[in-house]
Amino acid sequence: MSLKGLLSSRNIAAPRSLGPVAASIMSDGDRLAMLDELEQSGLGWFWASDENSHLTYLSRTIAARLDVPLTDLIGQPLTGIFTAADREQRGKSLALMLGAHRAFTGIAVRASRGGGDIVLRLSGQPALNTNGHFIGFRGTGADITDEYYREEETERLARYDSLTGLSNRHRMAHQIETTLTAFKTARRNCAVMMLDLDRFKHVNDTLGHAAGDELLKQVADRLTRAIDRECEIGRLGGDEFQVMLPDIDDRGVLGDLATKIISMLRQPYSLDEGRCVIGASVGIAIAPHDGVTCDEVVRAADLALYASKNGGRGQYRFFSGELENETIFRRRLEQDLGTALHEAQLFLRFEPIVESAAGSVSALEAHVCWSHDERGVIDEEEFAQIVEGSALLGDVGRWAVGAACAGAALWPESVRVAVNVPVALFLADDFVDCVGAAIDGAGINPARLELEISEAVFSGDANVVDRTLAALFKMGVRLTLDDFGSGYSSLAYLRRAPFDSIKIDQKLIAEAERQDSRELGLVRAIVALAGALQMDTMASGLESNDLVAALTSGGVRFLQGPIFSEPVDEDMVAQEMADGGWKIEPGSERLRRARRRTVFRKVQVIHDDYAYEVTLRNLSKSGALIQGLPDVPRGTQFVVDLGGGQLAVATVTRSNRDVQGLEFEQSLIEDGSGGLCTRSRVSPYALASAGAPLAALAPGKFIGMDQGEAVPKFGYGVPRA
Fold first, then answer.
1. Is residue 121 domain-shared with residue 195, that is, in the same domain?
2. Residues 316 and 393 in one domain
3. What is the pLDDT of residue 1?
4. Between 294-310 and 323-342, two packed helices, what is the crossing angle to 10 degrees?
5. Range of the domain at 245
6. Residues 6 or more apart from 185 whose CB is under 8 A from it?
7. Torsion region of 468: left, alpha or beta (phi above 0 gives left; psi -120 to 50 gives alpha)
8. Of residues 141, 145, 139, the one with CA closest to residue 48
9. What is residue 486's predicted lDDT score, i.e. its pLDDT?
10. The predicted structure's pLDDT at residue 488
11. Is the pLDDT of residue 524 over 70?
């Protein structure tokens, strides 16, 4: 059908009168010529179909635009030529409009044949014959390809991060909100991870913002590769990322995934401006256990992230109901740190470093502790978590160097003191002067001071690092490269710096204990490398006699860990060195104490629908020690309520009066911050089925009991609520 035939069809209304003047000027032929010119220009074009929606007419211009011969298009179903171009699939359906024989306007379609990147806007009007029967459509179209893709890019920028291509903050909030709403009805779980990069600001400040942008792109790529399951990954801005993981509440799986992410993100990055190393901290919350709404779950993940950063960075943390109070208390402790420095509340404990061949203590590593007015003694592990990231980290480090040298002055000349140096302190302008003043003030040989330096210092200004290392070497102090083999070790560090020893990464040492592990071979390779460079090697965190023997035979010179001794106070050091030396044999009793975490808190155990309050004395992955129930037979099964919906099935394996040793049916897992937790928790959905409102799990005891009621004998407990 020609355009003239199309227009002369009886069912097409005549053009609206242009008035007597216009009508006298423009003839029918002129109007047809004008329409032909309009078609040829591509500004507008026409189409028609029969009653079966097969194409009967199409402007040649659009056929040429589609790069398909017109004869191949005529007679084809309209829906076979054009497909919906609506990105969200929320617009009008061309097939639906054609089938309903209703007029339509503004349907965006793509060409499914020929040039598939062309987007058109169609409008159509049903055509009727003289009997009023439907005989097809007559319509117009316009090429909106450029406009469509401009809008698509605008929409993409509104939903995705322009730098990394990941979802942006608004899209992540929308995805989490809609997912949790749908999952609430379907009773499904969903985990949210919050990630924050460690030391990213330092890269920005030293290498520039262009390097920082490239680093973020590489982080996004690694993050995408690290997660091999359905998820939504977003960058919220700056160096903060977020991950939504549907249908998962197993904290063992989530912990392994967080560990994998942290490990991948701390590998070295190669940028045009130089090589750099960063880290990552992760906070994890799970719906509906830690919250039901988007705001609740994201806030819980944020609190967990804050706790993981305060815990020393480079680790993950699960949310728990006590985190908010813990966060408030931690801030108060940070505020009190200045008072601790001025009022001499800090003190040192010393962990022995044993020479493997002789079994004698050759050095003592200094750990800072805090005698707090209200809290009591804050040990070295908790203090390290508090001071990490504090503005007073450098001041605490300066104090530690001075106090360690003063302590070493009281020991035999053959014993050194080792001090871990924070990156911020090492890069400070006055660090070398601080070390010199500490040595002079204590009157010790500089070689008796051993500074443990992290590889992270090498991501700083190379001139500052090299100048500081050269000055310390000239001064005569010993230098140890800490955590070598942690994933981004480089021979360049060993070439650049005059190190006296290498401290092998503790995680590498722990893996070396496994019989099928290749890590022991890596340890031997590091020992050989160190020997070639005339450096000593050191291994820490040892808990096994077999591992001590393997490392000794492998050539590791210095050993350290709980199997030898926990950190001890100055009086104990003086007592052990009273005869001029200190020898330590590795002991299995120390190993057992080290593996169990000492705990002292009230928990509930359930047996035969009765709940008993007991004291949890210590806890390990495989079991626990409880006190408070007399005469419990061996083989008795309990459900231990560890709080916050954590229920662990356990069997009594030892019983002595009111003390019982329990073995868990399913091992506990690491919570990412040195603690233990169950893999799964009681589901709030199960509680809701029993009549409770659907809400996040409350902290503390999970199964209620009347407080204060005595349990004189096992078997007469308080019925569970």
1. no
2. no
3. 56
4. 30
5. 160-321
6. none
7. alpha
8. 139
9. 63
10. 53
11. yes
Asked if residue 709 is part of any domain, the answer here is yes
Q: Are residues 515 and 396 in the same domain?
A: yes
Q: What's the 3-state SS for 377-434? A: EECHHHHHHHHCCCCCHHHHHHHHHHHHHHHHCCCCCCCEEEEEECHHHHCCCCHHHH
DSSP 8-class letter at 443? T
Is the peptide bond prior to 288 cis by the omega test (within 30 degrees of 0)? Answer: yes
Same domain, 549 and 503: yes
91-105 tens-digit pLDDT? 567 888 888 898 998
Strands 104-111 and 119-128, sheet pairing: antiparallel
Q: What is the CA radius of gyration of the chain?
A: 36
458, amino acid identity: F
**Number of domains comprising the chain:** 4
- AA letter at 107: I
Decide if pLDDT at 713 tops 50: no
Tell me how far apart the alpha carbons of residues 318 and 328 are, in angstroms, rounded to a whole number: 17
The region of weakest confidence among 167-171, 220-224, 486-490, 641-645 is: 486-490
3-state secondary structure of 273: coil
C-alpha distances in Å from residue 103, one per residue of 130, 238, 328: 19, 50, 64
Q: Is residue 342 part of a domain?
A: no
- In the numeric block, which tokens belong to residue 174? 């929308």
SS3 at position 630: coil
250-253 long-range CB contacts below 8 Å, 24 or more apart?
250/679, 250/680, 251/284, 251/286, 251/318, 251/669, 251/671, 251/677, 251/678, 251/679, 251/680, 252/669, 252/679
Structure tokens at 447: 């070689």
Beta strands in 500-591 (DSSP E): 501-504, 536-539, 558-559
| Domain termination residue (choose one: 89, 124, 151) | 151
Q: How many residues does the chain have?
A: 721
3-class SS string, 20-83: HHHHHHCCHHHHHHHHHHHHHHCCCEEEEECCCCEEEEECHHHHHHHCCCHHHHCCCEHHHHEE
545 token code pair? 């006699």
Q: How far apart are CA 472 and CA 420, in angstroms?
A: 15
In this structure, the number of other CB atoms found within 10 A of the CB of residue 617 comes to 18
Residues 6+ apart with CB under 8 A from 704: 611, 720, 721
First to last CA, the chain: 83
Question: Which CATH number covers residue 49?
Answer: 3.30.450.20
CB of 423 within 8 A of CB of 389?
A: no
Same domain, 377 and 516: yes
